[in-house]
């Protein structure tokens, strides 16, 4: 593989490379997220495979120029398959000194820095805590990198001086200037972004014009000056044939719910309270009013789940979305939903905890809460998405299980895949399976009696919705008598009901696929067992190691409760089992307890996803031991 | 489980609304009366039985749901309002009744309560107020009077009580009324009004707890005191009370004044005429309750304090869905799956 570094040393030609990681970094108000997304979408439309990683602070606008205010967007794109946003980057766009300070450590040696010189004035350097009179752009400390100094602020001002816009408005276009320059550098067309700008500022044509001018000026700077010596071309990736789109995990979750509702023939109701990083799902779904989607922004997290319970009770596909702290608030109502035995999808987009923790950073630390975080014995299905696009299939599965098995289901995603994006070969409606739902419309017991808690062979009770003539009955949180559903304090009945509810969840095993290796062989020397968003990093590493001749395999779990039927047998076939998790070891507790497998844990609890290097080194260390 | 009886006559009777569960409130509990009045009124409401849904929280009051032969959910503490929001939004055709108590509504469920009033779903909210926590056997509630001696306040409670009708008005309730367990006819009339009102109808029902707070409201129903201590509001009628209907209330600017119709040379024509749609005056009436008027002892108002319809949440939701659909049309699932920008790899 060619790397940028090798190419740079040679000539000013256009160079073809396999993959590149670019990090856009600037102040929270510099528009780095938007710039990164535009760059990614353009690369995706061009046919590159990619993975993105928005990495931003929880403050909306921390003091300008400070380290606390640095907002980053990382994109890894290539002509080969890409599963992670990259451990290190090849190109760092630093809009100010603080951005350089924060993000330099992960720039590859020899990598490119594009620095906005005005962001390195005395004031910015001080805010970024550089020593007095030290300027990294001038003092030789960046000798191991290729630095391009561009006065983005000045260039943007010059090209927009005749527009009559205020200095502030002009200043806000500078991200477009940088984007134009990057498009030139990677030979990407401008038209997608130009159309985006026109749509976004349809009502403010003067702002649209200014942004387009800045974008074009950035491109022209690359084209017309001799500052930049090399352009890079990344050919389209050889992905499986089909039609693709770019999608984030949260958007995939939102449209997965719409698809599930449609395939079940039910209205969709979402009762939620805004919380980072789950809010997007509520926002996205609220756009689909014309499709009859009812979005209910509740007064709090509890009302979010309770309104969803109400909507489920009357026959909707009902959903509540949240993150860890909200999950805690919903647990009492989850107990009710468990008792009522009604369908409910609970989306937990995990973030760093406990408490407010690291609200914009990622973690997988809610797994044991999802499994056990309720009063009494209240087992629920728990399933987890492994990548941005996998959120679609997984939430569809969550909905199917909830509706077909009459149970609340916890769907786990996390900040990393929720905000990250990747190309997705999306399905068409014909490729989606029907979700089977029926409402009871006549008495189901002997002697024409209604028996609300009479179960079928899979322990599932009927869904009986208000408005159905002749089936009036009461349900509630008090323990139910088996079959009749009447209130019962009978000791033996309670134990029986606890077991029946557990059996119902366990029986779902018969309706989910068996576990199988994602890559590598069964019986390999070492199995890497993952769940959730560690998928991309584990997959990349295991595939690399397999090609290097190591005897490793990768199994990734979507279904955590119940586990696939064959999981125990599968795990016992491997020499060693390694479980990397972005928590202090939660899946490993479940696996060890259930299957008595002496699995080895590997934890990272830094609010950041695993790098491939970290996992690779761990695997090799174990294999060599 | 009950047997299903198909009533061919078409007209339902109170018995049709009685479930087969044994009612387990304490003997003499005010809840019995409320249950009876609801069952009495329901056949007259013209709603098919299967369209009624009761949602209750936790507490003595909330057991109500089990005793009505309708659809019902006995839910969790304080959350009935939130669950009812989802029920009504998802199916606006249902006649939704929330049953709750003073603790359930105003303490643990306070947040849901105020937002329910604000959002104005077309549902009926019956709050049984006994000014005590009964199911947990006698602790002070958010409506207990200051200084009340209970198991958790052996030296007297330190808290000002809520005035529920004032709170509901402040939370933008579109219908606020008060009635009491010992006046069946009045309660029946108020229940009918609550049902007829399109919007969230908040009805505070004074309910006697014979075990933990006996007699809290007897002054408003006992023959000797009732006419002095209670005033029964009627739309477009003057505010008259007193043993011999000899007292009235008139407004001096924004200050209510009690006048003696015999002595003060004022006639009924000078009195404050109750206007259910006047929110400012509704606030004043609701405050015949607390310290603002302490120097004058006002009678406690019963009846419809305020009723003025405004658009309800679920209709707004339906209209928004229809208007967006008209403008944009329903997006086919395939288009949602594909999104705005796609590319094809051959």
TrEMBL record, chain A:
Q: Which InterPro entries match?
A: 2-oxoacid/accept_OxRdtase_asu, PFOR_II, Pyruvate:ferred/Flavod_OxRd, Pyrv/ketoisovalerate_OxRed_cat, Pyrv_Fd/Flavodoxin_OxRdtase_N, Pyrv_flavodox_OxRed_cen, THDP-binding, Transketo_C/PFOR_II
> This chain belongs to which protein, by name?
2-oxoacid:acceptor oxidoreductase subunit alpha
One molecular function GO term is:
oxidoreductase activity, acting on the aldehyde or oxo group of donors
Recorded hits in Pfam families, A to Z, give: PFOR_II (PF17147), POR (PF01558), POR_N (PF01855)
Pyruvate:ferredoxin oxidoreductase core domain ranges (all copies): 524-594
| Gene Ontology terms describing biological process | response to oxidative stress
Q: What Gene3D superfamilies does the annotation carry?
A: 3.40.50.920, 3.40.50.970, Pyruvate-ferredoxin oxidoreductase, PFOR, domain III
**Source organism of this protein record:** Paraflavisolibacter caeni
Q: Which UniProt keywords apply?
A: Oxidoreductase
Q: Where is the Pyruvate/ketoisovalerate oxidoreductase catalytic domain?
A: 29-218
Q: Where is the Pyruvate flavodoxin/ferredoxin oxidoreductase pyrimidine binding domain?
A: 263-482
NCBIfam families, alphabetically? OAFO_sf (TIGR03710)
UniProtKB/TrEMBL annotation, chain B:
Which UniProt key words apply to this protein?
Oxidoreductase
Q: Which InterPro entries match?
A: 2-oxoacid:Fd_oxidoreductase, THDP-binding, TPP_enzyme_TPP-bd
Q: Any idea which GO molecular function terms this record carries? A: oxidoreductase activity, acting on the aldehyde or oxo group of donors, iron-sulfur protein as acceptor; thiamine pyrophosphate binding
| CDD domains documented for this protein | TPP_OGFOR
Q: Which domain of life is it from?
A: Bacteria
Q: Where is the Thiamine pyrophosphate enzyme TPP-binding domain?
A: 58-205
Q: Name one GO biological process term.
A: cellular respiration
Tell me what this protein is called.
2-oxoacid:ferredoxin oxidoreductase subunit beta
**What is the protein's species of origin?**
Paraflavisolibacter caeni
Q: What is the lineage of its organism?
A: Bacteria, Pseudomonadati, Bacteroidota, Chitinophagia, Chitinophagales
């Amino acid at each position: 593989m060619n790397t940028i570094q090798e190419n740079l040393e040679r000539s000013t030609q256009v160079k073809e490379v396999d993959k590149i990681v670019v990090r856009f970094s600037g102040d929270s108000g510099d528009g780095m997220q938007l710039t990164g997304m535009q760059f990614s979408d353009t690369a995706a439309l061009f046919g590159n495979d990619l993975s993105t990683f928005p990495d931003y602070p929880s403050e909306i606008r921390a003091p300008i120029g400070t380290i606390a205010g640095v907002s980053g967007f990382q994109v890894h794109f290539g002509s080969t398959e890409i599963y992670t946003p990259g451990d290190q980057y090849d190109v760092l766009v630093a809009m100010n000194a603080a951005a350089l300070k924060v993000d330099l450590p992960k720039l590859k040696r020899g990598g490119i820095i594009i620095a906005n010189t005005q962001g390195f004035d005395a004031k910015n350097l001080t805010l970024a805590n550089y020593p007095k009179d030290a300027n990294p752009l001038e003092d030789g400390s960046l000798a191991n990198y290729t630095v391009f100094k561009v006065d983005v602020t000045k260039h943007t001002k010059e090209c927009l001086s005749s527009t009559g816009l205020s200095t502030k408005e002009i200043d806000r276009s500078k991200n477009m200037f940088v984007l134009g320059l990057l498009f030139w550098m990677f030979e990407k067309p401008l038209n997608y972004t130009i159309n985006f700008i026109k749509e976004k500022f349809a009502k403010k044509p003067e702002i649209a014009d200014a942004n387009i001018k800045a974008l074009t000026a950035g491109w022209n700077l690359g084209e017309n000056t001799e500052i930049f010596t090399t352009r890079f071309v990344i050919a389209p990736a050889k992905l499986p044939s089909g039609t693709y789109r770019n999608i984030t995990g949260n958007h995939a979750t939102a449209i997965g719910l719409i698809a599930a509702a449609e395939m079940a023939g039910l209205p969709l109701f979402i009762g939620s309270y805004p919380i980072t990083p789950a809010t997007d799902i509520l926002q996205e779904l609220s756009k689909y009013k014309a499709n009859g989607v009812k979005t209910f922004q509740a007064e709090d997290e509890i009302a979010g789940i309770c309104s969803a319970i109400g909507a489920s009770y009357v026959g909707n596909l009902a959903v509540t979305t949240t993150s860890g702290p909200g999950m805690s608030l919903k647990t009492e109502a989850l107990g009710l939903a468990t008792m009522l035995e009604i369908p409910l999808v609970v989306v937990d987009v995990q973030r760093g905890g406990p408490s407010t923790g690291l609200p914009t950073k990622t973690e997988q630390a809610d797994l044991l809460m999802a499994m056990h975080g309720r009063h009494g014995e209240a087992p629920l299905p728990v399933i987890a998405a492994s990548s941005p696009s996998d959120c679609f299939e997984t939430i569809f599965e969550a909905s199917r299980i909830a509706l077909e098995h009459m149970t609340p289901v916890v769907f786990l995603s996390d900040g990393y895949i929720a905000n990250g994006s990747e190309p997705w070969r999306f399905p068409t409606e014909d490729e989606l399976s029907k979700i089977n739902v029926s409402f009871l419309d006549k008495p189901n017991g002997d002697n024409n009696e209604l028996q609300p808690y009479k179960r079928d062979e899979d322990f599932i009770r009927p869904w009986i919705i208000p408005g159905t003539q002749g089936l009036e009955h009461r349900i509630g949180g008090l323990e139910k008598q088996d079959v009749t559903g009447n209130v019962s304090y009978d000791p033996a009945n309670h134990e029986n009901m606890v077991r029946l509810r557990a059996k119902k969840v366990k029986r779902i095993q018969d309706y989910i696929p068996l576990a199988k290796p994602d890559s590598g062989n069964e019986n390999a020397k070492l199995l890497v067992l993952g769940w959730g968003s560690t998928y991309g990093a584990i997959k990349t590493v295991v595939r690399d190691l397999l090609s290097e001749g190591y005897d490793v395999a990768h199994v990734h779990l979507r279904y955590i409760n119940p586990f696939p039927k064959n999981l125990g047998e599968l795990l016992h076939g491997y020499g060693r089992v390694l479980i990397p998790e972005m928590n202090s070891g939660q899946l490993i507790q479940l696996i060890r307890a259930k299957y008595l497998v002496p699995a080895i844990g590997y934890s990272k609890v830094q609010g950041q996803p695993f790098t491939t290097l970290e996992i690779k080194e761990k695997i090799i260390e174990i294999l060599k031991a | 489980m009950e047997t299903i009886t198909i009533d061919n006559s078409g007209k339902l009777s109170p018995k049709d609304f009685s479930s087969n569960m044994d009612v387990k409130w304490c003997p003499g509990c005010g809840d019995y009366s409320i249950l009876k009045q609801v069952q009495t009124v329901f056949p007259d409401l013209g709603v098919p039985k299967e369209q009624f849904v009761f949602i209750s929280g936790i507490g003595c009051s909330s057991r109500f749901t089990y005793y009505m032969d309708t659809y019902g959910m006995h839910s969790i503490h304080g959350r009935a309002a939130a669950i009812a929001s989802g029920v009504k939004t998802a199916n606006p055709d249902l006649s939704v009744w929330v049953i709750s108590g003073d603790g359930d509504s105003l303490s643990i469920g306070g947040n849901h309560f105020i937002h329910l009033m604000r959002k104005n779903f077309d549902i009926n909210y019956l709050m049984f107020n006994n000014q005590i926590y009964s199911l947990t056997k006698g602790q002070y509630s958010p409506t207990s009077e200051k200084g009340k001696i209970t198991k958790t306040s052996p030296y007297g409670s330190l808290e000002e009580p809520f005035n529920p009708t004032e709170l509901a008005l402040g939370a933008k309730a579109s219908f606020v009324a008060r009635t009491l367990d010992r006046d069946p006819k009045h309660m029946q009339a108020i229940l009918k009004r609550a049902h007829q009102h399109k919007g969230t109808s908040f009805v505070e029902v004074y309910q006697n707890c014979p075990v933990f707070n006996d007699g809290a409201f007897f002054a408003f129903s006992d023959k000797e005191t009732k006419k002095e201590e209670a005033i029964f509001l009627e739309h477009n009628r003057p505010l008259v009370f007193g043993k011999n209907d000899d007292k009235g209330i008139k407004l001096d600017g924004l200050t209510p004044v009690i006048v003696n119709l015999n002595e003060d040379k004022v006639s009924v024509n000078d009195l404050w005429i109750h206007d259910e749609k006047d929110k400012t005056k509704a606030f004043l009436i609701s405050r015949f309750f607390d310290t603002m008027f302490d120097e004058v002892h006002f009678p406690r108002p019963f009846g419809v304090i305020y009723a003025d319809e405004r658009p309800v949440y679920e209709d707004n939701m339906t209209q928004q869905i229809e208007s967006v659909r008209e403008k944009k049309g329903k997006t086919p699932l395939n288009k949602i799956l594909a999104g705005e920008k796609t590319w094809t790899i051959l």
